[in-house]
């Protein structure tokens, strides 16, 4: 599942034609702040009205159990809910469920459903709907799970209409985040054309390449929200067109606007910005010489000046990283790794000489051509590598080619991409496990695998956090990639709008957006 987007500070997600939730250049979460421009004291919310939001791509499927594109979740987060739902800090909160408990052995989860939750067709949610939804994800009837995570579910039972128990085949502490999977009404088979969920908004219509419209769910179980009567997600792949539409008033909100464009908009708009739960990195193909030698990878890390990249490419609006974890994941983030490879040209040359490459070597940095942010990053890195004798040619490839040849086929020397954040640290770091099918870095370290497997079944949260921190240290020590930054996310909106929340996942929560007097 990969999604990718960026462009001079997450501007680009313009060409997310196929995003597949593993890669992305924009997550969306972390501490939000409203800069001085457009900042105002809290004003009284107004109920009602409509908002037009620019988004870069069509949904891949309206059926939430089939959808893999992050751009789909961005919109449909407002329509579907699971037993649990993340808040803006990434913490899992009861949603369709009122409460839950986990057995001491970590294998059985028992949920009590919330009273008064209704599907958009008016049907009250019952335990049988949860069982239907999870067994659909398990592929019970087809034998083909729609979600690989649910292949670990042994049984879903419904002791009564308000109680659901889920038993796993083997312990997996990270499974908790899967309870955010959409609960669907049993027996309804038209989700991909007229989706029905329990969220704060109901689906109205979808016109490919034009718009997706949702409207207020007046029966939503959380009182007072949503404020808006209607939201139109307007499909606008071209970032420049989105900017012009915002200036002209044709749209009301532009998420992931390039920070370098804020100056030309001035104080006529409200801005919210913050860290994303995302990792931009330049990875090296460890299965290909000379990158199979850790000294070469370390030399490249010493040669690359990430501070300069943040300044030049992200206009200074990015958080420097040292491993594959964003500070947004506070509990699991290992501090200090960003200083491991401070720029040292002499050290880089020395390591290359030790590896038998005293005169340097030539290589290719392959980047998705539709992501200007990554292209700009590659250009800066190529100049930096030249200082230690490495000649780096920049190869720009189409996104579809990148997915097929590089991500799936692992045919590349070096590449620059952004890895999307997840709610659970296991989903972030398992990407480097040797048996992970999308380990396109070709990283293989038995010690790392052991840490990841231990963390997956560790019930003590403090011990689990330390295991993931140790895993981050290994990635840095082995110089698997050049970990660059978590670029800031910025949204621009009309001044009369307020209530925007940043999440550590790729969503637009429209339930709290409102106009102010």
TrEMBL record:
<dbReference type="InterPro" id="IPR039424">
    <property type="entry name" value="SBP_5"/>
</dbReference>
<protein>
    <submittedName>
        <fullName>Peptide/nickel transport system substrate-binding protein</fullName>
    </submittedName>
</protein>
<dbReference type="GO" id="GO:1904680">
    <property type="term" value="F:peptide transmembrane transporter activity"/>
</dbReference>
<dbReference type="GO" id="GO:0015833">
    <property type="term" value="P:peptide transport"/>
</dbReference>
<feature type="domain" description="Solute-binding protein family 5">
    <location>
        <begin position="91"/>
        <end position="437"/>
    </location>
</feature>
<keyword id="KW-0813">Transport</keyword>
<dbReference type="InterPro" id="IPR023765">
    <property type="entry name" value="SBP_5_CS"/>
</dbReference>
<dbReference type="InterPro" id="IPR000914">
    <property type="entry name" value="SBP_5_dom"/>
</dbReference>
<dbReference type="InterPro" id="IPR030678">
    <property type="entry name" value="Peptide/Ni-bd"/>
</dbReference>
<dbReference type="Pfam" id="PF00496">
    <property type="entry name" value="SBP_bac_5"/>
</dbReference>
<feature type="signal peptide">
    <location>
        <begin position="1"/>
        <end position="24"/>
    </location>
</feature>
<keyword id="KW-0732">Signal</keyword>
<dbReference type="GO" id="GO:0042597">
    <property type="term" value="C:periplasmic space"/>
</dbReference>
<dbReference type="GO" id="GO:0043190">
    <property type="term" value="C:ATP-binding cassette (ABC) transporter complex"/>
</dbReference>
<comment type="similarity">
    <text>Belongs to the bacterial solute-binding protein 5 family.</text>
</comment>
């Amino acid at each position: 599942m990969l999604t990718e987007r960026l462009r001079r500070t997450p501007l680009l997600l313009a060409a997310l034609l196929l995003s597949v939730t593993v890669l992305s250049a924009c997550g969306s979460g972390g501490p939000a702040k409203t800069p001085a421009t457009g900042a105002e004291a809290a004003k009284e919310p107004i109920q009602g009205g409509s908002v037009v939001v620019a988004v870069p791509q069509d949904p891949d499927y309206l059926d939430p159990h089939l959808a893999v594109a992050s751009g789909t979740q961005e919109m449909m987060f407002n329509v579907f809910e699971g037993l649990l739902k993340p808040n803006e800090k990434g913490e899992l909160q009861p949603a369709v469920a009122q409460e839950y408990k986990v057995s001491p052995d970590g294998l059985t989860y028992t949920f009590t459903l919330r009273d008064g939750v209704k599907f958009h067709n008016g049907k009250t949610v019952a335990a049988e709907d949860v069982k239907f939804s999870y067994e659909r994800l398990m592929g019970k009837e087809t034998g083909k799970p729609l979600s690989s995570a649910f292949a670990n579910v042994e049984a879903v039972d419904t002791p009564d209409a308000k109680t659901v128990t889920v038993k796993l085949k083997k312990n997996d502490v990270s499974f908790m985040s899967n309870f955010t999977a959409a609960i669907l009404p049993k027996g309804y088979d038209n989700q991909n054309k007229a989706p029905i969920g329990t969220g704060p908004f109901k689906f109205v219509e979808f016109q490919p390449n034009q718009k997706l419209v949702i409207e207020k769910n007046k029966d939503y179980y959380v009182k007072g929200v949503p404020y808006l009567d209607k939201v139109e997600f307007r499909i606008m792949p071209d970032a420049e067109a989105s900017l012009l539409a915002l200036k002209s008033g044709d749209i009301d909100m532009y998420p992931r606007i390039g920070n370098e464009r804020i100056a030309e908009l001035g104080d006529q708009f409200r801005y919210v910005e913050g860290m994303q739960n995302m990792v931009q990195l330049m990875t090296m193909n460890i299965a290909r010489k000379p990158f199979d030698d850790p000294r070469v990878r370390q030399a490249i890390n010493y040669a690359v000046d990430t501070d300069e990249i943040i300044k030049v490419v992200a206009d200074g609006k990015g958080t420097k990283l040292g491993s594959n974890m964003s500070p947004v994941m506070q509990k699991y983030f290992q501090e200090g790794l960003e200083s491991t490879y401070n720029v040292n040209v002499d050290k880089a040359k020395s390591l290359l000489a030790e590896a038998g490459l005293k005169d340097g070597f030539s290589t290719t940095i392959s980047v998705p051509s539709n992501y200007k942010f990554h292209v700009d990053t590659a250009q800066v890195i190529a100049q930096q590598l030249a200082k230690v004798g490495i000649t780096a040619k920049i190869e720009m490839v189409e996104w579809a080619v990148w997915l097929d040849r590089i991500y799936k086929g692992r045919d590349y020397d070096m590449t620059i991409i952004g890895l999307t954040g997840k709610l659970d640290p296991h989903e972030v770091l398992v990407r480097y496990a040797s048996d992970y099918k999308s380990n396109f870095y070709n990283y293989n370290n038995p010690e790392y695998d052991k840490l990841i497997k231990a963390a997956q079944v560790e019930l003590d949260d403090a011990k689990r956090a330390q295991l993931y921190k140790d895993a981050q240290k290994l990635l840095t020590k082995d110089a698997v990639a050049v970990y660059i930054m978590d670029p800031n996310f910025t949204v621009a909106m009309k001044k009369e709008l307020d209530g925007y929340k940043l999440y550590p996942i790729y969503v637009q929560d429209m339930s709290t957006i409102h106009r102010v007097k």
